Records
---
Amino acid sequence: MKNLKKISKQKQRTYEGESDLNIENADMIICRCQEVTLKDIVQAIAEDATTVNEIKRRTRAGMGLCQGRSCSRLVRKILAEHTGQKFAKVIPGTFRPPVRPIALSTLASLEEDTDDKS
Amino acid sequence: MRKTEFAIVGAGPAGLSAAIEAARAGVKVVLADENQRPGGQLFKQIHKFFGSEAHHAGVRGIDIGTMLLQQVSQQKNVEIMLDSVVWGIFRANTSHTLGVIHNSKNIHLKARKVLLATGATENVLAFPGWTLAGVMGAGAIQTLVNVHRVLPGKRVLMVGSGNVGLIVSYQLLQAGAEVVAIVEALPKIGGYAVHAGKVARTGVPILTSTTVKEVHGKDKVEKAVLVQIDKNWQPLTGTERELEVDVVCLACGLSPLAELAWITGCKFTDVPELGGHVPIHNENMETTVPGIYVAGDLAGIEEASTAIEEGRLVGIAVAEALGYLAAGEAKDKKTEISSRAEQLREGPFGIARKQAKEQLICRSLSE
């Protein structure tokens, strides 16, 4: 709770409303799979996102083909920088199977044979 | 549903070594890798390794890979599944089931013990223009140049002066590219002096306290703007300079590739010396989820030689846990392997990793 208060205090100091996102390189892409920009992410933080999962749900950063393998670390850095959290404390988003892009038809093609190798 | 005693994800130095040791003791092993050929990153490593003779010092990574493949091919108990993507891992009572795509078929592979040896992923650096064609990771460049023998461009800016940045710079020079400069954000060179010297003697400038401000180009990289930074990583206005380059190579470190490990629910801790969040593991490399082991870069970013030793340790530990090795015999082998791994964690670069590893194992006792 204490931590949250600290974060929102810092936020008030940094962001005076949504329209005032005057940041450098605002249009720089962070998540290239979903074309999410730095501005999108900072906006999400200004709207109270404090975790990678929250940013993912608001912006789709990390939901593309590579599942955040490139941008997750960048998003964690931006979060740490803009919320005052320690980088090490910002954990990656939740991982769920499938961890690689696979066709649903392949997923459904469960092998029938039961040649137990044990 | 297929069954095996020991399933390994990743056929790099750690996975292969674990398979060899476990199979020698009699364990039935299935080794899955998403690539078309086993060996992991070893086949990109055309340079000679350091260390003692026990660690193949003076031997090229590619030859160590060939040696491991020969050893594993002698083991009848090892089945290698290539072109096989492990997309998930599920726990069922005392065993674990992997979801594997092989030949466009979805296979469920049930195993009593699982080793995750999935390696690492490259860290990226974001600056305006970083998504332009021509900005690529050092690992990608090593694959292009050393495996496929294709040069990514003619004039390269290397970002990062760690061992990867230095070695890849030298390999680019050998392949005929020009390395225009190496930039390093820290005030001093990150890698071994022997590698830095080799590159510097060819006339490549290594610019410390410098980073990439932005990269320009229409459809691909044409120009990079460098800027000097102060102690607090703030750019110093007026120090910008432009370089005409067609490739910007990012060698900014690696992070453990841990998706499958996170899915198992094992506990993690952040260890900057080991590349970030790593699964907490005990001296047998077993995580906080019984039956799930880790080795190699996933257990902390180190080198191929340490990955080999960690993999062997897991092979012995799994053979012991499955009843193929008596406790005394296993203990002797593990002591021998651990002492060799210790030797690899010496010197100014190794000592921090050694302490980090020791703390990791201490943490596992309290979990």
---
Amino acid sequence: MHGRLKVRSTEEQKLLKQKEQQKKLRAYKYAMNQVAATRKEIPFNKDSLMLCAQVLSVNPDVYTLWNYRKEVVLQQLEMSKDEEVDDALVSFLENEIKLTEQCLLDNPKSYSSWHHRYWILQRHPKPNWQQEFSLITKYLTFDDRNFHCWDYRRLIINKIGISLCNELNFSTERLNINFSNYSSWHYRSTLRKLDSECLEEELELVQNAVFTDPNDSSAWFYLRWILSDRNVTNEKREELLESLTQLLDMDPDCKWILMAKCWLTGSLSLTDNHFAEKRIMDYKKLKELDPLRKGQYSDYLECAKKAIGTEK
Amino acid sequence: MDYELPTEFDIIIVGTGIVESIVSAAASRIGKTVLHIDSQDYYGGFWASFNLEQIDKLCERNQNANVDISADVQLNEGERLIQIGNNNFDLKNTSQKWSIPEKLELKDVSENVEGDNCDVTETEADNGTGTEEVWTQEKLMRESRKFNIDIAPKIQFARGDFVELLISSNIARYSEYRSVSRVLTWLNGELEVVPCSRSDVFSNPKVSVIEKRMLMKLLGACMDSEENEFKDYKIKTFHTYLNDKRLTDNVIHYVLYAIAMSTVDTPCSEGVENIKRFLNSLGRFGKTPFLYSMYGSGELSQAFCRLSAVFGGVYALNQNLGGFVFDAENKFKGLVCGKQQVIKASHLVMGIEKSPEEFVKSVEVSYISRGIFITNGSVKGSEKEHLTLLFYPLKGGRELCNVIELGTLTGTCPKGIYIVHMFTKQINTPKEDLEECVSKLFQSEKEDSDVKDARPQVLWSFYYSAPDTNTANLRKDVPENAFLCPGPDCDLDIDYSIKKAKEIFNSMYPDVEFLPRAPDPEEIIIGDGSDEQIPKK
Amino acid sequence: MKNYNFAKYDGFILWRCRVSKVLVLRKISIDSVENLIRKKSVQSPTRKVPKHGEQNRDGTETERSYASLVLRFVKGQFHEYQESTIGAAFLTQTVCLDDTTVKFEIWDTAGQERYHSLAPMYYRGAQAAIVVYDITNQDTFGRAKTWVKELQRQASPTIVIALAGNKQDLANKRMVEFEEAQTYADENGLLFMETSAKTAMNVNDIFLAIAKKLPKNEQVTGPGGSGQGRRLTEGDAGSKATGNCCK
């Protein structure tokens, strides 16, 4: 009977898969040998380069192959040194960029592919950084936890220079979608030097995050970074301390709130001993709350006590 | 008719509503022969979506067209012929109104450059320049086919029974969805966005930091629902519980009327269950827990029909149905199709409106007040188009009015136009029941030229009472091998319908799997299955 | 004998008389940049494209030629005896158009087009249709015209309709002249090609021509995203960013 609906059994599917794998393995071995044998040839061996691309698009993590490609690219660059604009060279380089795109499609977290892409663009006579920028913006809207993208974005921005305001907005947008994201917070921290004006904004943003979810560590790290800035006045610190005390009332078992309070009282106690005592109490509570880091808190506690001692 | 249907099936299904269609898919899927037939020429019955022209004529339409008893068939002894269809479940209190002129007046035409056969997309291009588009009946009618107007709009929970069934049965392939992009509520005389998710809570500037924490804590408590937390509220309302929590009024409002979809009278346990359902459906598809099917809710039943057809279900719309044949023991024997043909089957499943009068005479009906509005803008304008769900607390928070606003991205209306559906349990007439909500959301009919009203204008409205048989006993008075399928209810989703369909399926075929996963194309071997077990190469 | 005759293959009914075929294509169109992103992140957007078929006195033949046209396109294979419709919900195939990838989902209607009852469910949101007739059978051409009329009346006003005269390999038994069909197509604004599922002639081309004629992946109203809906799958966790309120 023809046209019958037939579903493959799992057995058959397994067999197919095995065959598929063996085929891949053979192809991989063959390509690796081929590349190794012809690596030093000048001009480069076209077949090898093609095979190399095929393997990479399946497994972009073979850095030997990327190195081989770089050698070939250098060869090409060397050859076209004298001419002004070499169309053949440009299309050769564009091809490399396309290859990395293909590889990233398969594995968006491939170090080698990202590196190769940037490496090529740097040597490109007419690099289209703007296009790279929109690409990376798009990519980040789909996966904002891919730190490769954030890194790449920083590299691109250095090349094209775009307005701080736009970048801040972009970062806020990403945080609004998901603030449990070290990368977004960190990226934000690289954008500008804090001054008294923007401090207010940043403190508000970070408070929104820690009040929404005090158990999420990423915003606390950002807060810690803000607090390391000398522009944060003692008044600000006291204000924040007050607000965190309120938060602690609502969530008395959250170690992050206590820790943040200690960061604040740490700097405040330099001028006012009253805060030092609070600090000691908070460390004691932390020891109970977070017994896994008992030793660390004891250490801090000792330091805090000592500080009071010397003052007296 | 240039064809005749086969004369025998395992099961005949009359009506293409959602329950009927699910039963049809489930029966075909396990290899039963199914005839799925409808007197109407469209899918969905009371669940259908219509274009503007069709819905315009809906009031005139007789639900049971093509049904007549004048069939000329030979009956065996003891058999009797019963007329198909009844009028117990018709839409009532229908009132339809255009609020825009039929055509532009002459002087307007000369000002307006567009001609009769203008390219629609071209006129839309200047949408952004701020000039408001002038709509006429004629102009909307020209775009009639871009409308898919639900008479029973439905929203699905991303982790509700419907979505789970769609995925587990692999029927999800047959339809596309859009996530509801914002949930609104009516708070302090304004429409406000409800912070649904953790990120919404974080980014909502109208919620103070302390409120952020309250909201998150409360939702957490409902989610964990430890016994101690609610032990004192077994007979109290959810509203009481919230009040006792010493929350701010805003937080209580968001939680009670929006996230818990409750009223001041909702029992505590129900409110908590609703919150769990809401939160469980978050973070699966899109920013809110809700999904709407592209091209209208009428697509829902079609997805199931599609699977039924692929597994052999025979589909025939627009059929002349001459009557049902029942034998002396009141057992269903067959369906008379056309004038003469009797199609036999051992089971009959039918939409409640297709049922003979005698089976439904004692079915109790309550009504849903529904209103559909075509407007020229969103109830809460914004940069991008939203798919909006609004729970509007009516009458001091005693009833909720469900409001769904659909834009062109849902494939249910042309660009520049929104469709707003409203529904609530009927108390008076639809118009009276919805009046409060309508007056808040739209421009008033009386034009007040002094004050510019930023609210959208209603271009067309349609009010009606739709029957709800959710609480009725549909087995009473019904012969053993015949089953009635309820129509749309007042719920937001269709999970109740799935439950009903499953019940009907299980009474016919106990101990058989209900809609097992259908194979993917990749799993199917095309061609000669016998000698080509595994394709070469 | 009644005037119908059908065979059932594992749940797929095949009518052997007076069949006219309806198939749906859904187009998935993605540019290369998005491709890179979407593959890992979200479901591809889709478009609906219904495809219409021919009918024939001799149903078997028609079924064969029709299903086989699709099979040829999808699998690059031709089965002489491909009788029933394919049975799967739909098959998918990708064609490359400049730097755009267009993916078609091809749906069939399980072989019961004669009731005209499966077609209505394809009209909504449909963007293109192929109406197929058999060049060796004048009747099928007549029926194809009816389909075109129905499409123009029922489907979206912007639908792209293509007319395909199939079985071009049997041109020596031709009953419908090329010119006749071409004129009809021109008058009605249809794409037209004669195809052969057997020799693969024009099979890919007709889909390519449709892909070209369809509007490019327009970004409808900016940030709201494309005009396409979301497919629900188990694997699609949505934007994980959204996160659950209470983890």
